Amino acid sequence: MIDGDGVDDEGELSWQERALCAQTDPEAFFPEKGGSTREAKKVCVGCTVQAECLEYALAHDERFGIWGGLSERERRKLKKRAV
């Protein structure tokens, strides 16, 4: 699907179909404040699309949840180091 910006969303997001988290309870990836992220991160470690997931989260400034094995705070630190 091409969005209003002329971007092929289906191609960009095709990695999500292969993501292990798609077969896991989504609540594990969006814990309550102070909740454990351990289970979600365990899933990410074994996922073949972890890099694509993290790249997507960084490019789209995802502010909530575990993406590519990193929390929002960890992604923010990673972005600061890259600048």
From TrEMBL:
PROSITE patterns: 4FE4S_WBL. GO terms for biological process: cell redox homeostasis; negative regulation of DNA-templated transcription. This is Transcriptional regulator WhiB. Binds 1 [4Fe-4S] cluster per subunit. Following nitrosylation of the [4Fe-4S] cluster binds 1 [4Fe-8(NO)] cluster per subunit. The keyword Nucleus does not apply. The keyword Amino-acid biosynthesis does not apply. HAMAP family: WhiB (MF_01479). Upon Fe-S cluster removal intramolecular disulfide bonds are formed. The lineage of its organism: Bacteria, Bacillati, Actinomycetota, Actinomycetes, Micrococcales. Belongs to the WhiB family. Residues 20-77 form the 4Fe-4S Wbl-type domain. Its main location: cytoplasm. [4Fe-4S] cluster binds at C21, C44, C47, C53. Its cofactor is [4Fe-4S] cluster. It is found in: Cytoplasm. It comes from Allobranchiibius huperziae. One of its GO terms (molecular function) is 4 iron, 4 sulfur cluster binding. Pfam families: Whib. GO terms for cellular component: cytoplasm. Keywords: 4Fe-4S, Cytoplasm, Disulfide bond, DNA-binding, Iron, Iron-sulfur, Metal-binding, Transcription, Transcription regulation.
